[in-house]
Each structure stands twice: as structure tokens, then as C-alpha cells.
Design a protein that fits this description.
By secondary structure, the protein is mostly helical. The chain is built from three helices and no strands. The longest helix has 19 residues.
């Protein structure tokens, strides 16, 4: 239940944008590592 409470607190602080940017950067890094970005873009 502590994790759930923490998650709700994070949501209340409007950190969805930060989470999305983090996920996007991670996905971009993975794509670059695999060499997919050169084909996709």
C-alpha cells in the first residue's frame, strides 16, 4: 500500500510529462543502440 500511496502522490505532482520524457529518451537510446533509428528516420 505504501507504493500505491507514493504513486498517487507522484500523479498529484503532475510528473506524467517527466515520466513520458524519460521513457522516450530510454526508447530512443535503445533504438540508437540497435541501429533502428537510422532506418526509421
Amino acid at each position: 500500500m505504501k507504493l500505491l500511496k507514493l504513486f498517487v502522490m507522484m500523479m498529484n505532482k503532475n510528473t506524467w510529462k517527466t515520466i513520458f520524457q524519460m521513457l522516450l529518451s530510454i526508447l530512443t537510446a535503445i533504438a540508437t543502440t540497435l541501429g533502428i533509428s537510422s532506418c526509421a528516420f
